[in-house]
C-alpha cells in the first residue's frame, strides 16, 4: 500500500487534508509536532483523536522544544501577546519563523525512512494569515529541495489539497468526508474553551458562518 | 555588523567554514545540534571549544532527540553498526535521512530571528561519503525554498565555502586560518580516542596524510 506522511496539527485544515489522502487510497503515517506552542496540550489531544478517526497506521509524536529557544513568535514566546483585535495586513506576530520548513524537513526524513510517496500538508494560501511558509510557490520549492537532498530512489511529492480553498469550502469538505470537526482545534491561545477573537478563531468562525454550519466546539465569547 | 548563522558540528569542515566567515567580517551566530548521534558528547565539547576559539557572539545549542525516534542510520540507531571496512560506493548506512535539510531549516529560523544575512554550512561534495544532502545543487534548491518560505525582508544566502575542496585542502586552509584542529572531532563512533577505521576517520586521516601534516587528535589504532 502506498504511504503518505500527513502532518496533522490538530487543526481543521490538516485533518481534512489527511482525510483526502486516505480517500485517495494512501496508508496514513501521521506526524504531529509539539513545538512549545501555547495550545500544545489541546492540539496533541486532537491529533490523537483524529489519528483514531482516520485509522492512522503509524504515528510519530515529535517533540521540538527548541522552538521556545528561538521564540520570535507570539505562539512560542509567552512575553508576546496574541493579537485579538482582528486580522490585519502583513505577516502577523503569530508567524513562527520557517515553521513549515522545519516541519516539512522532518516529514521528509520520516517519509524517506518509511518509503512513502507523498507528504501531505494542510497549508491554505488565500484565506489565511499571510504566513510566507503557506504559499504554494514555497511548498513547490521545498519539494524540489527535498528531492535533491534525499536518496535518488526517494521520491516524495508534496500534496497541499487545500492551498487555494477558502475556509468555508474546507468546512464543506470536512462534512463531505465525514471529518469530525469537534476533534479539531484552531485557537492560538486557549486549551479550554476557544477565545473566539484570535486570528485563527476568527478565520474558523467566518468559515463556519459562510458555510452556514454551526461550529461544534465551545467558545468563551 | 552583518551576521552569519554558522552550523558548527564540531568537525573540521564546519570549523573551517565558520573561520572563513569570520575572516570575511561576519559576526558569528554559532548553532550546534545534539541529534542523538553516537558521538554527541564529544562533538558538543568541540563546539564549545571552537565557539571560544572563534569568539562566537551568540550560541544556540539545539537538542533534537527525535532523530533517534526516526533512526534509519547507524549514527542514530545503536542496532545498526558503523561500517569500518573502508569507503564503498553509494549512500552508506551512516546517512541520516535529510539531516542537513532539518539543520538548514532550523538555521533559517534562527537567521530570520537574528536578522542574519547568511547561513554557513561545511558541506563537502566531492571528497565525502556520498550523502545526497551535501550536494551543491541541493543546497542551492534549499536556499531558494528558504527565500520563498520566510518574510520578504529576510534574505539569507547559504555559503558553503568548502563544497568543492578535498580534505587535504581543508586541512591546509585550517592551518592558514589558524583553526586548532585538536578542537575538532570526526569519528562516527567513539567519544574517547577516535577509531581510525570508520569512513569519517578514514577521510580525515587521508586528508592529513595528503597535506603532509600530523593529525593532532588521538587514535585507538
Q: How does this structure look, described?
A:
2 copies of one chain form a homodimer. The first copy, chain A, has a 5-stranded parallel sheet with strand order 3-2-1-4-5, with helices on both faces. Chain A is built from 7 helices and 5 strands, in the order βαβαβααβαβαα. In chain A, 54% of the residues are buried. With 221 residues, the first copy, chain A, is an alpha/beta fold. Chain A is globular, with a radius of gyration of 16 Å. The mean pLDDT of chain A is 97. The N and C termini of chain A lie far apart (46 Å). The first copy, chain A, has one domain: Rossmann fold, CATH 3.40.50.620. Helix content of chain A is 38%, strand content 11%. The interface between A and B is large, with 42 and 42 residues.
User: Please, how many domains of chain A?
Assistant: 1
Instruction: Report the C-alpha radius of gyration of chain A, rounded.
Output: 16 Å
CATH superfamily of chain A: HUPs
Order of helices and strands of chain A: EHEHEHHEHEHH
Major sheet of chain A: order of its strands? 3-2-1-4-5
Q: What CATH architecture of chain A do you see?
A: 3-Layer(aba) Sandwich
Largest sheet of chain A, described in full? Answer: 5 strands, parallel
Number of helices of chain A: 7
- Highest CATH level, the class of chain A: Alpha Beta
| Most extensive chain interface and residues per partner | A-B, 42 and 42 residues
Give the helix proportion of chain A (percent range).
Answer: 25-40%
Number of strands of chain A: 5
CATH topology of chain A: Rossmann fold
Overall average pLDDT of chain A: 97
